[in-house]
Amino acid sequence: MAEGDGENTAPDRARRRGGTRKLIVTLLPLALIAIIVGKLTVLEPPPSPAVVAARTALRQHQLETKCAAANGVKTAGTAGIAAAAAGPTLDLDSKTMNLDGAHYLKVGVSLQLPAKAVVDDVKAEENWGSVVSQLVLDTFSGRSFAELSKDGVRVRLQHDIGYQACVRTGGKVVTVYFVDFVMQ
């Protein structure tokens, strides 16, 4: 048998152990870094249902507060909050509806959009006009001529419709204006 055949000599074993150690010393920190990065990014556990619910409630409260401030609606927490910057307006077709008896109401509505909204994009892509038109119909249906003739009722209903439109559209309609309001 020749020297070194079948047997590991001491220098060969030391060289292999040194190579293994070098490999472990190199790969171990890299593996630890990969695990840490993975935990912080990809392996982050989803938030608990309580956290999701709390975030949703906070966003809803912020939206309602913003909408209330823009529409002059007094709610808890809206004191001292400034209205959002005015953007373009989108005029809707006037709606005519019957009131009590032989009376009717014609209401023209204009939507106040956020500051950076583009009216042509809104017309093409969104259905906000239908949402607000339905709110107007729901609000004025069943009202009497006498009730709508009282001081301040029209303004209060305008603020209510504006607030509801703001909340239902997620703040994409800031408020509404009555540009036409005729009762006969």
Structural overview:
With 184 residues, the protein is of the alpha+beta class. The protein has a domain of 95 residues: 2-Layer Sandwich (Tetrahydropterin Synthase, Chain A), CATH 3.30.479. Helices cover 52% and strands 14% of the residues. Strands 1, 2, 3 and 4 form a four-stranded antiparallel β-sheet that branches. Helix 4 runs antiparallel to helix 6. The longest helix has 31 residues.
Using brief descriptors, characterize the structure shown.
about 180 residues; alpha+beta; Tetrahydropterin Synthase, Chain A; 4-stranded antiparallel beta sheet; 6 helices; 4 strands; rod-shaped
The whole-angstrom Rg is: 34 Å
| Element-level helix/strand string | HHEEEHHHHE
- Overall mean pLDDT stands at 81
Q: Number of helical runs?
A: 6
Global geometry: rod-shaped
Largest sheet: 4 strands, antiparallel
Strand content: 5-15%
Q: N- to C-terminal separation?
A: 121 Å
Offer a quick outline of the entry.
The protein is an alpha+beta fold. It contains 6 helices and 4 strands.
